[in-house]
Every structure is written in structure tokens, then in C-alpha cells.
Automatic annotation (TrEMBL):
Record organism: Aneurinibacillus migulanus (Bacillus migulanus)
Keyword field contains Nucleotide-binding: yes
Tagged with keyword ATP-binding: yes
GO BP terms, alphabetized: DNA repair
Lineage: Bacteria, Bacillati, Bacillota, Bacilli, Bacillales
Residue ranges occupied by any PD-(D/E)XK endonuclease-like domain in the UniProt entry: 12-305
Identification of the protein by name: PD-(D/E)XK nuclease superfamily protein
Keyword list, A-Z: ATP-binding, DNA damage, DNA repair, DNA-binding, Helicase, Hydrolase, Nucleotide-binding
Name of a matching Pfam family: PDDEXK_1
GO MF annotation terms: ATP binding; DNA binding; helicase activity; hydrolase activity
Entries under Gene3D superfamilies matching the protein: 3.90.320.10
Length: 309
């Protein structure tokens, strides 16, 4: 008997899920429901296709992942008391990651057969080649991000202070808000000798409003999961492109905002369920398209979507 999975995925909430829900309901349906089980050879062809489309990435995301991996490696080296790479070595590593993604993306058949082993860039999948302006834009960010990572306040503190305890690095974790499982993944969490908990978040993009929500969510996580008073939590966003660090200490009011947001978001998402126990969605027709060419242009599911603009 072939390996089976549950007919519907387990329900959970994350900020990225909320963002997709608001950007396009149809995209949300493809990503969180239609792709479910598509990794199985016994899955219906539509689920197999949607699952593969869900895994498409793009140059900006590959850059972001590579920078995050570089930061993670730096912290691992610190924990092992080993020598740190130079800026040039980090640049070489990031370039290598981008080049691998490009080379992988030429192997469509291999990616289709083994979507977890290969990377497929959205730009290549839909456009056939990489747009030159985007290659240049991403290329220009590599050395800047590498340099600013090494100069960032959080990395220098982790590297130089001897009373730092690393608690989490890129670890997917969950906690409960109003009986709902909430997923978070912190880039780095550490405790200083003075008892302050620092959450460091590396950003390779521009300043955006959604970053504020992320900080509130992280502070709520630390407050609820570790029981740390908010006054002992410092949240830092390290903007690697612009080379500055935004520090915040959040208040009860700040975390209440995110608590309310989660509750409202969960209610909205549940209104698109036929059955909340099984997490069975309403029929696909009830999930409207974005209706905006700018959103559809970047969407992974253009190939299968009947609502695309
Ligand atoms: S192509 Fe457009 S309408 Fe369709 S899922 Fe993507 S964003 Fe939504």
C-alpha cells in the first residue's frame, strides 16, 4: 500500500501565512491546501504540480537565504571557537549559492523529479532566463550585505562579548495564542550577561511595515514561551542593505496589537474553512484571485491559476 498522508494539512498560523492570505486568497488556497500531499508519487497530478510550484523561489530569496546561512555559520563558528571567514569568503559563498540556484534551474526535469534536492528560480521557470537588471540588482547587494553582516551590532556583540548565551539560531519553533499553534523562526536569540534577551533579525531587503509586526510577534513568543518580561527583551532588526540596526523594547500595548491581529486573522482564515476540525477548506471557487497584475506577476501559481491577471 502506498504511503498515505492526511487528507488536509494541520492548521497553524504564521505571519507569512497571514501575508499571503491578504495578498491573494487563491494563492493562499494553492499554497496551503491544493499542494498538500503533492510530494507523494501517489498524489493526484494537480497536487504534484501545485506542490512543485509552491517550492519555486527567486533570486532575492536565494540571496536572503544565503546571507542567513552565512550568519548562522558565523554563530556556529563562534560556538566552536573557530576562525571566522573574511568578507571575501562570505561573498564567494553567497555567489556560489546564487550560481547553484541558476545551474539547478536549467535542469527542469531533475527538479520536477526531486523538487527538494534542486532549486528552481521563478525567473527561469516562467521567463526562461534571468532578467539582466535583476541579476545586477542582486549582484550589487552581495558584497554590501556581507560587509554589513560582519559589521552588524548583533554579530559584533555575539563575537566579542564573553558572557553571551546563544539560545536559538534559525530554529522553527511554535507556541500557543488563544489555543492556536503559531510558528516562528528567529534568526538569532541570545542572552547577555546582564539578563537581557536579544532577538536579532537580519534583513537583506528594504525597511517595510511588516517588519514591525514580525518584531511584535517575536517579542510575544519570547514573553509567552520563555516567560521573559518585556522589559528584558531587546528586538533588533539589522538592515544589511543600508547598514543600520533598529533596536526596540516593546510594551504590553505592542504585544496586545499582535495578539489581536492573530485572533482577527485566525477568524478570517477559519471563515474559509468548511470544517475547522479537519482543516477542510471551502471549494476553490470561494478563494478569489488578487485581481492585480503586480501580484500575479510574482506568483508561483500562474501556471495553474484560472484567475491570473
Ligand atoms: S496568479 Fe494571481 S490570482 Fe492566481 S493565485 Fe497567483 S496572485 Fe492569485
Amino acid at each position: 500500500m502506498p504511503y498515505q498522508t492526511k487528507p488536509y494539512p494541520e492548521w497553524s498560523w504564521s505571519l507569512s501565512r497571514d501575508q499571503m492570505f491578504h495578498a491573494c486568497k487563491r494563492q493562499y488556497f494553492y499554497h496551503y491546501y491544493a499542494s498538500h500531499g503533492g510530494w507523494l508519487l501517489s498524489a493526484p497530478p494537480d497536487a504534484q504540480t501545485t506542490y512543485r510550484l509552491k517550492k519555486l523561489t527567486n533570486l532575492y530569496l536565494v540571496l536572503g537565504d544565503a546571507v542567513h546561512t552565512a550568519a548562522q555559520k558565523l554563530i556556529t563558528l563562534r560556538e566552536q571557537n573557530r576562525t571566522y571567514p573574511t568578507k571575501e569568503q562570505i561573498v564567494t559563498y553567497i555567489r556560489g549559492a546564487l550560481n547553484t540556484a541558476y545551474q539547478d534551474s536549467k535542469k527542469k526535469a531533475e527538479w520536477w523529479g526531486y523538487p527538494k534536492q534542486y532549486t528552481m528560480l521563478h525567473e527561469m521557470y516562467y521567463g526562461g532566463e534571468l532578467p539582466r537588471e535583476r541579476v545586477e540588482a542582486v549582484g550589487n547587494r552581495i558584497a554590501v550585505c556581507a560587509e554589513h553582516l560582519l559589521m552588524s551590532e548583533s554579530w559584533r556583540e555575539i563575537r566579542d562579548a564573553d558572557n553571551i548565551t546563544i539560545l536559538e539560531v534559525e530554529k522553527l519553533n511554535d507556541f500557543i495564542v488563544n489555543d492556536k499553534k503559531i510558528y516562528v523562526k528567529l534568526d538569532a536569540l541570545y542572552r547577555r550577561g546582564d539578563g537581557t534577551y536579544v532577538i536579532a533579525d537580519w534583513k537583506t531587503g528594504k525597511v517595510a511595515e511588516k517588519n514591525e509586526e514580525q518584531l511584535r510577534l517575536y517579542a510575544l513568543y519570547l514573553h509567552e514561551y520563555y516567560g521573559v518580561p518585556l522589559t528584558h527583551i531587546e528586538v533588533r532588526t539589522e538592515y544589511l542593505l543600508d547598514g543600520f540596526c533598529m533596536r526596540s523594547v516593546l510594551t504590553e500595548e505592542d504585544v496586545d496589537i499582535i495578539r489581536h491581529k492573530i485572533s482577527a486573522s485566525v477568524r478570517s482564515m477559519e471563515s474559509y474553512l468548511d470544517d475547522t476540525y479537519y482543516n477542510r477548506p471551502l471549494p476553490i471557487e470561494r478563494f478569489a484571485g488578487a485581481g492585480e497584475t503586480s501580484v500575479c506577476g510574482m506568483c508561483n501559481f500562474r501556471q495553474v491559476c484560472t484567475e491570473k491577471q
